[in-house]
Amino acid sequence: MSIILGIDVGGSGIKGAPVDLETGEFTADRFRIPTPAKSNPKNVAKVIAKIIDHFADELDDGPVGLTIPAPVKHGVVPFIANLHKSWVGVEAKKFFQDELGRSATLVNDADAAGLAEVHFGAAKGHPGLVILTTLGTGIGCAMIYRGVLIPNAELGHLELDGHDAEKRAASSVKDKEGLSYEEWAVRLQRYYSHVEMLFSPDLFVVGGGVSKDADKFLHYLDLRTPIVPAMMRNRAGIVGAALAAKDAVDHPDPLDPVVNPEANAPVV
Ligand code: BGC
Q1: 160 — alpha (psi -120 to 50), left (phi > 0) or beta?
Q2: Whose CA is nearest to atom 4 of ligand 1?
Q3: Which of 41, 131, 137, 265 lies most in the core, judged by the most C-beta atoms within 10 Å?
Q4: How far, in Å, CA of 121 to CA of 203, rounded?
Q5: Looking at ligand 1, which residue's alpha carbon is closest to its atom 5?
């Protein structure tokens, strides 16, 4: 099973493609449907079903990987900042498996991007601690140590100077407040210096749509840690979702009640 469908659920679009996990390439063109105005699990599941249908000729009924802009603890979403609040507490993995009639793995969107960069992109094969941040509507974060993902690092919500960090330093805030790259970089500096102090990473990778303009702001940052733009661009979420789905097959989560009914772990 080296081709798996990855689907990236974002605030404005839901995008999918079959991914060749040997190369990280798509085996067919990406297909995108706008995120429904009411982005609750039921409506999102309908869109995902359409994307699965779209690729019906290329894929069997194998597993699907889904990103979501929220932490996912053993298949459950404990809180959500930038999508419909009705996701909270839903056994999302079970819900999607029931709705889609196939094995589904949910993974945080930034964790997916981190997996993609460590497997195929800017942090490929890195032997130390990589922290990937995605700068977009919010700030997403992935921590990967020696290739192993430490999931759900919500460092976009660090409280800094009395603010939720993403409310000051996400790229959506730059746009909303009309900041220049140089002005925005002051906020990024405050953010990355703090994360650097807390975790002493070996490498920062900067993802999210704005990473294509990395040459306009990364040079303003003064950090001890190397900081580089992500390479996977808008493929990161889809590729990472497919990688997470493969990993869930190879290493089933023993604390996930869908995988192990004995687990009975209180997750929210
Ligand atoms: C969410 C994270 C997500 C990030 C980027 C944050 O608000 O809490 O889970 O990774 O936004 O979408």
Answers
A1: beta
A2: 140
A3: 131
A4: 13
A5: 140
What sign for the dihedral angle of Cα 54, 9, 111, 140?
A: positive
174 CB contacts (<8 Å, ≥6 apart)? 181, 184, 210
Residue 223, judged by CB atoms within 10 A of its CB (0-12, 13-18, 19+), counts as middle
Write out pLDDT tens, residues 79-123: 998 889 999 999 999 999 999 999 999 999 999 999 999 999 999
Q: Give CA–CA dist 8/199, Å, rounded.
A: 28
Residue to mutate, 88, 109, 164, ligand 1, most ligand atoms under 8 Å from C-beta:
109
Name residues contacting ligand 1 (CB within 6 A): 69-71, 81-82, 108-110, 134, 136, 138, 140, 154, 156-157, 166
CA distance 44 to 117: 26
Residue identifier of the C-alpha nearest atom 12 of ligand 1: 69
